[in-house]
Each structure stands twice: as C-alpha cells, then as structure tokens.
Amino acid sequence: MNLWIWLLIACALSYAWKISGYLVPAKLLENPKMSRVAGTMTIGLLASLTMVNAVATGQSLAADARLGALAAAAIALALRAPFLVVVLVGAGAAAALRFIGWN
C-alpha cells in the first residue's frame, strides 16, 4: 500500500479515538482514582518520550550533548527554577557541550 494511505488511516484512527473520548460518561471522569491514573499515564508517556529523544539516534543509542542538556535541565527543575529558565539552562548546556566537542 502507498504510504499516504497508511497516513490517512492513522489520522482517521486518531481522530476516531479522540471523538470516542466524548462518549465516556462524566461520572467515570469524576472518580478521583481515574483522574489520578490519567495524570500518571500522561507523566509516564512524556518522560519516556523525553528519554527516547535524549538517548536515541535512529535505531542506536547515543550519549551526546542532548544527555548533558537533559541532566542540566533536571538539576534546574530540582532547584525549582521557572520553566523558561529550565529550557534556557538545557539549551545552554547543550550549546556548551557541543562547543567543547561532545557531539
């Protein structure tokens, strides 16, 4: 099959999944346990996506400036820096590490 057909199928399935969320009863969403599970899943998915983007290049692992930037941003988060500062610290660390030759 053509790649565009698969892309359109994936788009349609994603849209159908999003629309199906409106069919969930409100009573189920008001449950504190469900709210806690949804919040935890969101954090887990975001953390895994961040790690994959930080240590993977194609199909192999890579330890480059992205890993140092992630560590610097984590330290800034631990020190309770504002989000913009965390982003700037991470970007600055990546730039500094690439400048000294750690690609």
TrEMBL record:
Domain of life: Bacteria
Keywords: Membrane, Transmembrane, Transmembrane helix
Pfam families assigned to the protein according to its UniProt record, in alphabetical order: AzlD
Spans through the membrane: 37-55, 67-100
Name of this chain's protein: Branched-chain amino acid transport protein (AzlD)
Source organism of the structure: Arthrobacter ulcerisalmonis
Lineage: Bacteria, Bacillati, Actinomycetota, Actinomycetes, Micrococcales
